[in-house]
Each structure stands twice: as C-alpha cells, then as structure tokens.
Design goal:
With about 650 residues, the protein is α+β, with helices and mostly antiparallel strands. Helix content is about 50%, strand content about 10%. The strands form three sheets. It has a six-stranded antiparallel sheet with strand order 4-3-2-1-8-9, covered by helices on one side. Strands 10, 11, 12, 13, 14 and 15 form a six-stranded mixed sheet that branches. Strands 5-7-6 form a three-stranded antiparallel sheet.
C-alpha cells in the first residue's frame, strides 16, 4: 500500500496537519478538542468566504442536531488557541451571519513544502449591512430575512425582556462569559447561604448515538423539578445550554457559572429502555457527593429516571424534605412519552429564535397539547413562543398577545403552582394589557413559587419601573443579579434601572461590565451609552457610540432612532430627517416599533407627529410603551395634555 501524502495548510506561525489532525505553532503542537480542529479546517478550506452559522454547523456536526452555543464555544476556543486579541487577526465575525477566515493561507504537500496552490490573501473590506439584516441563530435564509429586534430609544433590552419572560434567553451566556471578573465571589452568601447547583446537559453514553433533544430535555426537566426546592438556587436552562460539547469539563463549567455543585450525566435510550450514569460534584474540591447508575425498562422509563435522579439529588443536598417538596419532585406534567417528545422538539426550535424555528415550535407545542390536552408545560411553551414572535416583530403584537394570554391562562388553570406559567401570564398583563394589578399579582406569585429564580424578579423590576417605583425597581433587579450573576440580560437591566434614575455614571459602568459578559449580546451594551452621553450633552460621543453599534449589528432601527434623536438634539436637523427617511423605508418591509419614529420627531420638536406615532404604538399594543413615563428622552412631551391622556388610557395616570 502506498503511503498517504501529507497535506498541510500554513498561515502565519501556524501549520495544520490534515492527515494527523494537528495544529502546530512554530513546530509545537497546539492542543485542540476534535470538533474545534474540524471547525478550523472548514474555515481554512473556505478561506476568504463567509460561512453562515448553519453551514458551519452542518459541516462540523453533519448528522447531529446542535445548538448555536456549541458553535460559539468552539469559535471562542479556537480564537484563544490562535492567540487572537479581539482584532480578528484570523477569524472575522460577520454580524448576524457567520464567520470568515481572513489570514493568508498556503496549501502544502509533504515535507518539501512545495506550494501547490497559489497563496490566497483577503483584503480587509467593509461589509455593508443590508437595511434589514437577518437574525442568524443556526439557520440561513436565502430568500428572506428574519426581522431583527425592534428596539426603541431607551428600550434596547425590552425585546430581550419578552424572551426572558418566556424562559428562553438563548444568547444569554455565550463564550465570552468566562471573562466576567466583576461578579462578587460571595454572591451566593448574599442569598442567605442558599446552595447553588447547575444541571448540565446530559452526554451520550455512546458518542455516535447522540440525541441532543433528550440530553437537553433531561436537564430542562430536572431544572424544573429541582427549582421547587427553596434551599438551593438552580441555574436556569438558558445558563447551561452552551455546555453541550462532549469534551466539557463539568467542574470548569461549574466555576464559570459560579455554583456550589454541578450535576452531570450520561444517557442512552433504546426503544423504551433508558440507561444513565449520573454524578453530583462539589465544584470547590471536585468531590463526588453522590453517584448512581440507572437501567430503566418500564414503558414510562424516562419519567421514572427523572423522578429518581431529582429525588436523590435533592436528598443529597437537603436531608429533610417537606411533604410538599417531595410531592413537587415526584410531580409529572405528562405521563405520555409522545407528548413529552413533542414538547422537547418545541423547546428545541423555540430556542433558535428565528422565524422558521418559532413556527416549528408552535407546531410541536400544539401537537403535544393535542396528544395530552392537560399538559401545562406545553401551554406555557406556546404562550412563550407567541410572546417572542411579538417581541421580534415576526407577528405584530396586537395579533399575538391574545393567543399568548389564552395559552398562559390555560396553563395556570391546569397547574396553579407552575411558576413559569404565572411569569408568562404576568408579562402579558404587564406588556400588552397594561393591567398593572394583574401583572403584579402574577409576577409576585411566580416569585413566591420559585424565589431563587432571577427571571421573575427581573420582570417585577420592569413593573416597578413602569409604575414609577424606581428605587424598588433597582432593588428587584439587584436581587435578580444576585440570583443570576452571569446573565447579560439582567446585568444590562441593572444599567437601565440606573439610567432611569438619572445615575448616568453608574449606568455606564454597569453597561461596560455587562458588555464583558458577551460583547455580541444584542446592540444594548453598545448603544445605551449613546443615550447617556446624549442626556449629558456629549453629542459627539453619543454619535460615536451609535456608529460603533452599527459596525457590529448593522443599521438596526433602534440604533437609528437614537442616532436620529441625537442629531436633532445637537442641531443637525437635516441628518435627523435623513434618519427618519431611512426608518420609514424599513417600516415598509416589516413591522417594528412606532416608538422609534416618535423618538426622532420628539428630538426635532415636532410634538404633533411624535404623538401621532405614540398613538400608533398604543393601538398596536407596543410592549415598549410601558416605559413611556420614565424614558428621559420623552421628557419634553410630559407637559402636553395629550401625554396625560395617553397615560390615562394606559391606566398609568396618578
């Protein structure tokens, strides 16, 4: 047999050995996980070409469902291995699309280093974003683009609020999370000594037989069960979704998440038979607290497995459980495996956060409900998806909120003790119906049922902001931050709460800390500072912040609105009117918030048009309208009787 010829790629100080699957730097091996190496090879072989996230996931994981968080993690790992300092020396991030390898690459065979393909170079060019960039979360769209987040002035994190309300913050903890250096190392002590635990996604017992829906679904179900135990804090699904790669070090993940314990497991399902191996580990010293193996053969084997694991983990951490806690651990939301599997598929597609994914999620949740009409979790999921559709502008809020309310009310009717159902219902009453008493009742009920979950505290802070209780709002969001110290959403909302109080310097500092968690987390951390600088009269700095945001996120309508308002306030009226024209052009192609337009007219001093657009926001049930009475940039409208009338219609007038 003839020996296979060596085949290399070279760039800078690096060489890729494609036969032995090695990356070398100046002759020394650079250790890489297998999938990270595969990702590098795909990028290098397509040098100079933009690869969408979907393309990359299909090539690196050809026969497996994976989450976008997997890709983000491996890109992050690869950049660290290549010594990138954030300038994109080798890998460029193309906002909302994908990645591109940009270094000069030479292709070489054998040790003679004979160059068989001409060296390829890529000139750095500015990629001009389309006016309606798509949200890339694992799928590409060749003929249409998914609507981008419609974020109004001072409300850049409010779209994320609806994702938070539905329990589906997919982008929340990307690879940059480990850079967080400002979290209080004693954060859990502030929660009265309550222990904290992260349930990591399960791994396959056999690597070639992955079922990521089941692996994530097991973690999701156990999180729901364990969240009813008030003696410890359970990290939400959004915090642990990224830890799906097979090489994941559980102790390292626990340290990143700032928890006392991690639960890891391996899983395999063949027909009705389920095998699993599970361990509870102490993050402090890597000590095994509890371990067990399971071999379930009954027709409801997956449910029996979940019951056994949750009960044994709870007893390992809390020796004396109350009768109610034991009932919570034993509780099943469905006994039908078909309905459960359909629910897992709904959760999977829901968390892709694009138009196609959300449509599929609705289909699967409805199918689960058809199989089991009493499946409260499926109704909660359905309500959450409808919320997200309205938040992303895929469906106008006025068309989706009633469907969301019906599903949430049905979930509460079926199970009054399901915290997420009260959370979603409270959000609907808060954001769409402006039923302040109802919103407060449902959100406080969610907190009562699961006091160690940061999300309902965060939502309750929104209620406090909308009703003018700014000190209480800051207190609630601080509590949410204690419970979820690494959430970019919650850390961003701390800055927003400070902004509404007029505490601009602290707000800037809080935003910079949130930005460290994940620089790619939406435009919020990049353009709220623009609003703060504008309020301080530092217009040039505000404009620079908007331009910085454009470079990363494209010409987002919310950023355009801030820029237009700043131009108007600084006396650049022609530039402001040009921004208005651009926003109007975007509105012809898809729905987004009327408040964006109202803001620019407010900056121009055109109150008639500003109120006309605020009226449209009211008529379309724009969820961003709840902040109308605390947004500093709308302050000039408050002495007008029409503003008072608007508050009366929203039941906000004192």
């Amino acid at each position: 047999m003839s020996q296979q010829a060596k085949h290399f790629y070279e760039f800078g100080a690096y060489r890729i050995d494609t036969l032995d699957h090695l990356l070398l730097r100046n002759g020394e091996v650079v250790p890489l996980p297998p999938k990270t190496f595969d990702l590098l090879l795909v990028l290098v072989e397509s040098n100079g070409r933009v690869l969408t996230k979907e393309e990359l996931m299909k090539q690196v994981w050809p026969d497996t469902f994976v989450e976008e968080a997997n890709l983000s993690h491996h890109v992050f790992t690869l950049r660290k291995a290549l010594g990138e300092d954030g300038e994109g020396k080798y890998i460029d991030t193309i906002p909302r699309r994908g990645y591109r390898f940009v270094a000069s690459v030479a292709e070489v065979r054998d040790e003679s280093h004979e160059v068989i393909v001409a060296e390829r170079t890529l000139s750095r060019i500015v990629i001009e974003q389309t006016e309606s960039p798509s949200i890339e979360t694992g799928q590409s769209h060749s003929h249409q683009t998914a609507p981008v987040l419609a974020l109004a002035a001072g409300t850049e994190r409010r779209t994320f609020m609806l994702m938070l309300a539905s329990g589906a913050i997919v982008l929340a903890l990307a690879a940059g999370i480990f850079l967080w250096k400002t979290a209080n190392p004693k954060i859990e002590q502030s929660a009265k000594g309550v222990k904290s635990i992260a349930v990591l996604p399960f791994k396959p017992l056999v690597a070639d037989s992955r079922n990521e829906l089941l692996e994530i679904g097991m973690a999701d179900t156990l999180i729901t069960k364990l969240s009813g135990i008030t003696q410890f804090i359970v990290r939400p699904l959004s915090a642990i979704r990224k830890y799906t790669w097979l090489e994941q070090d559980s102790i390292a993940a626990g340290r990143e998440l700032g928890v006392d314990y991690v639960l890891e497991g391996s899983l395999q399902m063949e027909g009705e038979k389920v095998r699993a191996s599970v361990r509870l580990l102490s993050v402090k010293d890597a000590r095994v607290i509890w371990t067990d193996k399971f071999d379930e053969k009954s027709t409801d084997s997956i449910f029996s497995l979940q019951d056994s694991i949750s009960q044994q983990v709870a007893r390992a951490l809390v020796p004396k459980l109350t009768g109610e806690q034991q009932r919570q651990l034993a509780k099943r939301y469905t006994d039908n495996t078909e309905a459960y599997n359909l629910y897992l598929k709904g959760r999977f597609f829901w968390n892709r956060f694009n138009e196609d994914g959300l449509k599929k999620a609705i289909e699967y949740f409805n199918q689960a409900i058809a199989v089991d009409p009493n499946y409260a979790l499926a109704y909660t999921g359905l309500a959450g998806v409808y919320n997200v559709q309205g938040a992303l502008g895929i469906v106008p809020p006025a068309e989706t909120w009633s469907k969301a309310r019906w599903a949430a009310e049905r979930a509460v009717e079926l199970d009054d003790k399901l915290a997420k159902s009260h959370q979603v219902l409270g959000t609907i009453k808060l954001m769409y119906e402006w039923d302040w008493l109802g919103a407060e009742r449902e959100l406080t009920r969610a907190i009562e049922l699961n006091p160690t979950d940061g999300e309902p505290h965060n939502l309750y802070a929104y209620y406090c902001e909308a009703t003018g209780q700014l000190d209480k709002a800051l207190s609630e969001i601080r509590r949410a931050q204690e419970l979820a110290p690494l959430s970019p959403v919650i850390n961003t909302d701390v800055a927003s709460a400070l902004y509404y109080q007029g505490n601009y310097e602290e707000a800037i500092n809080a935003y910079r800390k949130a930005e460290e968690l994940d620089p790619q987390f939406g435009p919020g951390p990049l353009f709220l500072p623009a609003q703060i600088y504008e309020q301080k009269g530092e217009y040039d700095q505000a404009i620079a912040e908007c331009q910085k945001a454009f470079a990363t996120f494209g010409r987002d309508p919310g950023i355009l609105a801030i820029l237009g308002y700043t131009y108007a306030r600084s006396g650049k009226r022609r530039e402001a009117k040009n921004i208005l024209s651009e926003i109007e052009s975007l509105r012809k192609r898809r729905y987004f918030s009327s408040i964006d337009v109202a803001l620019v007219h407010t900056g121009l001093g055109d109150k008639d048009r500003a109120f006309a657009w605020l009226t449209k926001a009211y008529e379309t049930r724009d969820p961003q309208l709840i902040w109308v009475n605390v947004e500093p940039e709308l302050r000039s409208l408050r002495t007008d009787q029409r503003f008072t009338d608007l508050l009366h219609r929203m039941n906000l007038a004192q």
